[in-house]
Specification:
mainly beta, 309 residues, disordered N terminus, 2 domains
Length: 309
């Protein structure tokens, strides 16, 4: 049997749904999770049933799980699988009872690429930022001073989290679109790990403009922007764009009250700062999916800058 490898590109997004009319009832929550599957020959595992076991681990990456579930999914034509953590078959624990204020937390995935129950592929990643909806549902009230959709810091807040020291942080999207048709970079070389973070868009952006021979890129027009008198804009990483997509309703409500602001579209794409390989980088589709099969120096896309606090 052909040996299978698993390349993961995780997008941890929040879907916060209230299904109870009781004021004090627990709100069910779930993560949207996506991964791209490839075999040992770097060929996409397309239109194939796979099974996964997902564990939420508290404290350390090798600690005991506080919640475990299993799910089945089928990869699409691009090798992408999509599932919602918190909505699977429960093995142990209660997802809604997790206190996200007492992290850190890690997400461990175990995968059987043949669709069975022999989980031969394991990946564990720290949940760096505690999602706003999950934290506010389980932590003490009054911990956040800002809200999603707030006009603040030269743009609109689209994500909030509390770090382990109890300090509030957030991501802000520019009220203007910087370009509707921009190449990722004029340089067609492999940058490597410095530009391949799923979440650190600022680090990716600095690596992109630091390439030898660089003269033009989506990252550069973000880093050089001084919109709203701010000078620390950058090209978002793929996970940051995923978070922005899921906050589109609240962001666009506020943008609609600002004269000349560019609303977040429902069609088309934005460049992310996440490199895939020497030739390709990740594009984010406003429908909510990511795709890496776009040339860095030939394909064009929209550009939207973000900043953090």
């Amino acid at each position: 049997m052909k040996k299978i490898s698993f390349i993961i590109h995780c997008f941890f997004l929040i879907v916060f749904v209230l299904q109870s009319k009781q004021i004090n009832a627990q709100a069910p929550q779930k993560f949207s999770y996506q991964a791209v599957l490839r075999n040992i020959n770097n060929i996409l595992i397309s239109s194939t049933p796979v099974s996964m076991k997902i564990s939420v681990i508290q404290g350390t990456s090798n600690g005991l799980p506080v919640y475990v579930e299993t799910q089945n999914a089928t990869s699409n034509a691009n090798g992408l699988v999509t599932l919602e953590i918190g909505a699977g078959t429960i093995v142990s624990g209660t997802f809604n009872a997790i206190n996200w204020a007492t992290g850190p937390y890690f997400i461990k995935t175990e995968t059987d690429p043949t669709g069975g129950s022999v989980y031969s592929i394991t990946d564990t990643r720290e949940l760096i930022s505690v999602p706003y909806a999950l934290y506010s549902a389980n932590a003490a009230t009054g911990s956040f001073t800002h809200h999603i959709g707030e006009a603040f810091g030269g743009g609109i807040i689209f994500h909030l989290w509390i770090d382990p020291q109890g300090i509030e942080h957030g991501l802000i999207v520019d009220i203007f679109e910087l370009s509707a048709s921009q190449i990722w970079s004029n340089v067609l070389n492999l940058i490597g790990i410095q530009a391949q973070s799923n979440w650190n868009g600022l680090g990716n952006s600095n690596a992109i403009v630091g390439q030898i021979g660089h003269t033009n890129s989506a990252a550069a027009i973000c880093l050089n922007s001084t919109n709203s008198n701010q000078s620390d804009w950058y090209l978002p990483a793929i996970d940051e764009l995923s978070l922005l997509c899921h906050a589109r309703f609240d962001v666009n409500k506020t943008l609609s009250t600002i004269a000349g602001a560019s609303s977040l579209p429902t069609n088309g794409t934005y460049w992310s700062s996440t490199e895939y390989d020497q030739v390709y980088a990740f594009l984010f589709f406003h429908s909510g999916l990511a795709n890496y099969n776009y040339s860095k120096s030939q394909s064009t896309s929209g550009v939207r800058a973000i900043r953090s606090f």
